[in-house]
User: Fold Uridylate kinase from Clostridium senegalense.
Amino acid sequence: MEAAKYKRVMLKLSGEALAADKGYGIDFDIASEIALQIKKLVEMGVEVGAVVGGGNIWRGRQGEDMDRTTADYMGMLATCINALALQDSLESAGVHTRVQTAIEMKEIAEPYIRRRAMRHLEKGRVVIFAAGTGNPYFSTDTTAALRAAEIEADVILLAKKVDGVYDKDPYKYNDAVKFNNLSYFDVIEKGLQVMDTTATSLCMDNDIPILVFGLDKPENIIKAVKGEKIGTLVSKVSCNK
Assistant:
């Protein structure tokens, strides 16, 4: 099997990726496909951490009058549902998996403990980090950046609906241009929708590259880890279309 470019990765999946065309809830066929690709990574010797969003179940302040903190905690619980679903798909595929939550719920998952997470990764177990950072006002993008820094991941694999980063919305504009490479500063200065500013700054401060690619084909996860030309790489390099 072809060698991997990265030894330890943080896979960031949106909640919408698990919903697929349903738009809401969990499409277990898609979850199983993603699980099989993660299994291939583990077989390649790659250590895999993962963060899953919760947008397929609860997205932000859906109630206009809802308190922001309450809404954010509801979103954290949604990520736990997705994490357990992905864990089930992974274990059905024969992959040893642990879910660690930033908010303690010991009956269903381990509490997040960095040293324990590192040990799981070293033993070849996939670790899914759920419940965000455990604090309101922080996104799952920031969670992915924070946990990636803590576990010393080589890269964040940011799986999205689009196949990279564009200068404008490719679904709305036919003349949208895709970037091959971007610097962290480019992303912040141009206001590009890669990760939120807090997450991007955290990656910049810790020199963690972000590889943005489309999840329309689950095998793109393998291509990304092998270092194939795919998506948009955000790192220290200058803007390059």
